[in-house]
């Protein structure tokens, strides 16, 4: 018997059914533009036209050919995308006139998607959403074609192949963060610019081309359905808030009338209902009633915040029946000294900064609306008994230091902070990484964080700490690591324990801005977020070794041990020290095995070292790029041992070494030949000499002479005696 679907699966299926039903009701019209090299009659266009019509329940999917396609010379190079906008716009207007009162969706493949985005910027038409299939973000000369995307205010969904060279996903992620409009991305794993997936990739993942494209179409349908719902809700909300504003206007007029034409009793009774400023004139029973007029603006803001948190594209604040856009982004204010003071940080509309007592913190100025409301609304000042806990680290002693006062930070030869100042700095960097106004959580990767924001973080550090500028790289790396750990902590304790998005959104950490938390939840729910999570889990499972240093950096441990011993520890010694408990036992099995092998290698060698190929590297393996084990954050292999040559440089070095060796061998061979020639000449000379001796001295025993040749004196005496014996 098949098992019943899980709660999350039932909810997802219910949501899909709801979106499908809404699409059937709305029946959008889709204008689908082709790429630069394929007409509307190509297999790709026909296939995707049918899939979009079915998935979106479109009243019609209109395809067309740009003018350069017509005729026999349609394969000539297409004109610039800007030159096709007018023709594309005419097609769209005709489609709208043919099907009025239907939502308009613009779709396009490659160049067609780029032209569709340009057309959507035209104010003469009302576009509900854009579908970009293989958007050509990268131009021929390598420049990014993102100008149109950054101007868009229409929701857009990108469908890209992971192997699409015309749109690198990392660059697209950076552009998406800068875009003003709501946007989403669906990645076809292994797909190229036309979404074609290799046969080996399909076999490896047990999938088919049709399944991958069906998933993409479902993602498009989900995005379009939600977008159309939001547009409808936005219109309803606008009408509702407009009516509410008119009611507030009438209530205010009624209060003014009561104040001008009535006596004390009427002012008190009307004030008790509509918020009189004179609390002393109100009856005691009415003093606790809500003050509608004074709180009117706050009610509008709360209603708008609720809608904004539910629907990203609804970012408006309605005031007395008039709507205007309100920016909730935070821009740090850098003083002439180059740092941010807490009093300069404006409180955003997304959150209220609270101190431990529950009142607005003096570090953040209150908005005029909140000041006015406090002067007119009764506030219960009775203290509430709250259990004291340590709470999050806020590093207030550093943030509140007088201007011009700095904490001195010592650094080692690897530019790493050490000592008391290093510990304070590390704690302070954690508060920066967890502040969403300084380091927003909405960026996909730390590398995507704008350089301007990173520079502001460095200026904050320089304003509070006296640290060598050469440590800037370490400081930014440390903030990036803490920022990444902060996101991981939020997901572990506030996202994974819940099954529904409602529960996740409600369980927001108070230090996270609501808008950023909503975007994080949406990303973790996306296919891209799930794929990243699976990859990170797989990589994390390979890390079998943990250490016992706790929050103390390896740089501080190394410096403390150097001060005790009078010499610097080797990598093997520091590894054993930081992977052993106080009772002398290793922290885990993997550490135990590594320590045993290190001790065996150490016993075979007189002393350890910190070189690239020391016995620590032989046991633990080669270092990965960008870090060196036991040295902590900052130092890289090239910093310690010089740059590692790339394959081309290594081949060049090997060739030079081989050439040098060949030259030396050739020189040795030439010397050997010279020596052989010399020996041959000596042999001829000796033979001639022996023949002469034999002829002149026939009584000489040549064997005795050769045997006594080792002693020149004996040889001379033999020759003399032989000469005397032969005389007459």
From TrEMBL:
Residues 651-685 form a coiled coil. Residues 270-308, 324-392, 533-557 are annotated as: Disordered. SUPFAM superfamilies: alpha/beta-Hydrolases. Signal peptide: none annotated. It holds the Pfam family Abhydrolase_11. InterPro entries: AB_hydrolase_fold (IPR029058), KANL3/Tex30_Abhydrolase (IPR046879), NSL3/Tex30 (IPR026555), Probable_transposase_24 (IPR004252). Keywords: Coiled coil. Transmembrane segments: none annotated. Residues 324-349, 374-384 have a biased composition (Polar residues). Residues 29-224 form the KANL3/Tex30 alpha/beta hydrolase-like domain. Residues 355-373 have a biased composition (Low complexity). PANTHER family: TESTIS DEVELOPMENT PROTEIN PRTD (PTHR13136), TESTIS-EXPRESSED PROTEIN 30 (PTHR13136:SF11). This is KANL3/Tex30 alpha/beta hydrolase-like domain-containing protein. It comes from Nelumbo nucifera (Sacred lotus).
């Amino acid at each position: 018997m098949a098992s019943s679907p899980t709660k999350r699966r039932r909810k997802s299926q219910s949501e899909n059914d709801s979106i499908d039903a809404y699409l059937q009701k709305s029946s959008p019209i889709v204008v689908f533009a082709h790429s630069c090299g394929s007409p509307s009659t190509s297999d790709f266009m026909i296939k995707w036209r049918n899939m979009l019509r079915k998935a979106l329940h479109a009243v019609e999917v209109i395809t067309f050919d740009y003018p350069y396609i017509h005729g026999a010379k349609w394969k000539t190079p297409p004109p610039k995308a800007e030159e096709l906008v007018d023709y594309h716009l005419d097609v769209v207007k005709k489609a709208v006139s043919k099907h009025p009162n239907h939502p308009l969706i613009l779709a396009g493949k490659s160049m067609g998607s780029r032209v569709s985005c340009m057309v959507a910027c035209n104010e003469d038409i009302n576009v509900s959403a854009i579908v970009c299939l293989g958007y050509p973000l990268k131009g021929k000369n390598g420049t990014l074609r993102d100008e149109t995307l950054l101007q868009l205010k229409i929701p857009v969904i990108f469908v890209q192949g992971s192997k699409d060279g015309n749109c690198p996903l990392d660059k697209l992620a950076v552009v998406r963060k800068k875009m003003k409009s709501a946007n989403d991305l669906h990645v076809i794993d292994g797909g190229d610019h036309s979404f074609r997936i290799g046969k080996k990739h399909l076999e490896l993942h047990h999938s088919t081309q049709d399944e991958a494209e069906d998933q993409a179409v479902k993602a498009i349908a989900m995005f379009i359905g939600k977008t159309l719902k939001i547009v409808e809700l936005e219109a309803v909300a606008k009408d509702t808030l407009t009516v509410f504003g008119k009611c507030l206007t009438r209530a205010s007029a009624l209060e003014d009338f009561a104040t001008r034409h009535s006596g004390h009793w009427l002012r008190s009774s009307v004030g008790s209902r509509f918020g009189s400023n004179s609390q002393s004139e109100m009856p005691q029973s009415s003093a606790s009633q809500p003050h509608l007029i004074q709180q009117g603006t706050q009610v509008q803001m709360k209603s708008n915040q609720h809608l904004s948190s539910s629907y990203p594209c609804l970012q408006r604040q309605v005031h007395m029946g008039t709507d205007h856009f309100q920016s909730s982004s935070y821009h740090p204010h850098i003083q002439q000294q180059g740092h941010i003071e807490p009093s300069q940080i404006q409180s955003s509309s997304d959150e209220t900064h609270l101190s431990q007592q529950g009142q607005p913190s003096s570090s953040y100025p209150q908005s005029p609306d909140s000041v006015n409301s406090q002067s007119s609304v009764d506030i219960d000042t009775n203290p509430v008994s709250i259990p004291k806990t340590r709470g999050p680290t806020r590093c207030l002693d550093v943030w509140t230091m007088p201007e011009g006062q700095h904490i001195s930070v010592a650094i080692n030869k690897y530019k790493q902070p050490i000592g008391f100042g290093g510990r304070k700095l590390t704690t302070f960097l954690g508060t920066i990484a967890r502040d969403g106004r300084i380091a927003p959580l909405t960026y996909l990767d730390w590398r995507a964080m704008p350089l301007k924001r990173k520079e502001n973080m460095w200026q904050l550090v320089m304003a509070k700490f006296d640290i060598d500028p050469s440590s800037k790289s370490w400081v930014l790396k440390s903030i990036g690591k803490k920022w990444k750990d902060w996101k991981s902590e939020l997901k572990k304790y506030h996202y994974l324990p819940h099954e529904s998005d409602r529960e996740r959104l409600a369980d927001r950490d108070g230090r996270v801005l609501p808008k950023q938390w909503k975007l994080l939840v949406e990303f973790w729910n996306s296919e891209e977020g799930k794929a990243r999570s699976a990859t990170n889990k797989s990589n994390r499972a390979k890390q079998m070794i943990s250490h016992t240093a706790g929050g103390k950096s390896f740089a501080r441990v190394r410096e403390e041990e150097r001060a005790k011993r009078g010499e610097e520890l080797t990598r093997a010694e520091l590894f054993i020290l930081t992977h052993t408990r106080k009772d002398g036992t290793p922290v885990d099995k993997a550490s135990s095995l590594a320590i045993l092998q290190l001790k065996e290698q150490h016993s075979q060698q007189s002393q350890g070292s910190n070189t690239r190929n020391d016995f620590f590297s032989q046991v633990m393996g080669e270092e990965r790029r960008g870090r060196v084990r036991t040295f902590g954050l900052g130092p890289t292999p090239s910093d310690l041992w010089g740059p590692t040559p790339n394959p081309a440089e290594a081949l060049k070095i090997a060739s030079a070494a081989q050439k040098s060796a060949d030259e030396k061998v050739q020189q040795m061979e030439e010397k050997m030949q010279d020596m052989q020639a010399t020996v041959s000449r000596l042999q001829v000379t000796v033979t001639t000499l022996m023949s002469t001796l034999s002829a002149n001295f026939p009584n000489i025993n040549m064997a005795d002479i050769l045997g006594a040749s080792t002693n020149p004196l004996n040889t001379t005496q033999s020759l003399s005696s032989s000469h005397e014996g032969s005389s007459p």
